[in-house]
Every structure is written in structure tokens, then in C-alpha cells.
Amino acid sequence: MANAALLEQIYTIVAQIPAGRVTTYGRVAKMTEGATPRMVGSAMRHLPDGHGLPWHRVINATRRVTDHGGAQRQRDKLRAEGVVFDSSERVPAALLWP
């Protein structure tokens, strides 16, 4: 798990992802001062209740939702924002932020 300063950086970045767009764990990590994609994923998994962050807008490097217990909920939340998936369940590159 990332230290408090890295967590704050990760959460600040994730909070900026606009509705209808996605980014990857790696892209978020590159915007921090030392987080890894795995740390970003861990931070998303351990969000406190009632956080309000758009965690569902962070996907993996293949532009797919990572397979986890909340994967279907994540896809549903993205679809509700207008995000489309191709036949391989990938999000179009044009929807990547920033």
C-alpha cells in the first residue's frame, strides 16, 4: 500500500477524471511522485466508505476493466456515463484521459 502522501496524490488525480472518460492505473501512477500501477490499484480497492471518488474510471493498461468482485458494477457505472466497450470489452483509446 502507498504511503499517505502518495495516496493523497492518487486520490487527487482520480478525483479529476471527467465523467465519460477513463484512465489507467499506469497513467495515474506516472502523475505521482513514485506510485506504481499496483499501488494505484490497491488504493482503489481500499477506498473508505462514502469517499465519492470516481474509482470506476480507472482501468487497466489493455483498456479493459480488471477482473475483480466489482467488475460488473464498474462496467455498469461507466456505461451509465456513456462509456462504450468494443466486442473485446475494451474502452476506445479516444476516451482515455488525459
From TrEMBL:
An example Gene Ontology molecular-function term: methyltransferase activity
Domain Methylated-DNA-[protein]-cysteine S-methyltransferase DNA binding intervals: 8-83
Keywords: DNA damage, Methyltransferase, Transferase
Keyword Transferase: yes
GO biological process terms on file: DNA repair; methylation
Keyword Transferase (UniProt): yes
Gene3D superfamilies: Winged helix-like DNA-binding domain superfamily/Winged helix DNA-binding domain
Source taxon at top rank: Bacteria
Name of the protein described by the UniProt record: Methylated-DNA-protein-cysteine methyltransferase related protein
Organism: Franzmannia pantelleriensis
Phylogenetic lineage: Bacteria, Pseudomonadati, Pseudomonadota, Gammaproteobacteria, Oceanospirillales
